[in-house]
Design brief:
single chain, about 180 residues, alpha/beta, seven-stranded mixed sheet, about 25% strand, globular
Length: about 180
């Protein structure tokens, strides 16, 4: 078995309470930071003081093992502000962020409500990375019933959209693909 090393990272973003940590917890076989132990089992939520804390700057790694290879994928977590998305976008477009953009291999956007402004902001960041950027863009709807119109909107911004669960977590969709 070989070990694949790659310096590219995934940027996991979403607004406050968009489901970033829920997504990460359900897709990662390894424990998520120390926060996992603080989740109240009866509500499946973090205590109130931690809910008000931004997730910006957190990081995690997912290790994938198959019979052929092992790979560790670093994930950076950032929070999209609800009030000043333009400032957040400007920071990612600045020369100081060039090193960050160079190592991104994918962007995952989590959302509960239609993310019109967030998609537009992330599109500007992706455009900054240039036409030769070969990363993956994934929009994950943590809500239900977003439908085909939302999927088409995400696609228009370059994002593939999937519904997280949609009440049928672990099932297969109409294309026989696994639902997250």
């Amino acid at each position: 078995m070989s070990t694949i090393t790659n310096s590219r990272r995934i940027l996991l973003v979403g607004s406050k309470s968009s489901g970033k940590l829920t997504f990460l917890k359900c897709t990662s076989p390894s424990p998520i930071f120390i926060l996992t132990s603080l989740i109240n089992p009866s509500t499946n939520r973090l205590p109130s003081p931690l809910l008000s804390t931004s997730h910006a700057g957190l990081s995690h790694e997912i290790t994938i093992k198959t019979q052929y290879y092992t790979s560790t994928i670093p994930i950076w977590i950032d929070e999209l502000p609800s009030e000043d998305l333009e400032e957040w976008t400007t920071q990612y477009l600045s020369p100081a962020a060039a090193e960050v953009l160079e190592v991104l291999g994918g962007i995952i956007l989590t959302f509960r409500n239609p993310p019109h402004e967030e998609l537009a902001a992330l599109k500007r960041v992706v455009e900054k990375m240039g036409r030769n950027w070969d990363g993956v863009l994934l929009a994950v709807s943590m809500g239900t019933g977003m439908g085909e119109e939302m999927e088409e909107r995400c696609f228009g911004f370059g994002f593939e959209m999937v519904e997280f669960g949609g009440g049928k977590r672990g099932g297969r969709n109409e294309l026989r693909s696994w639902r997250l």
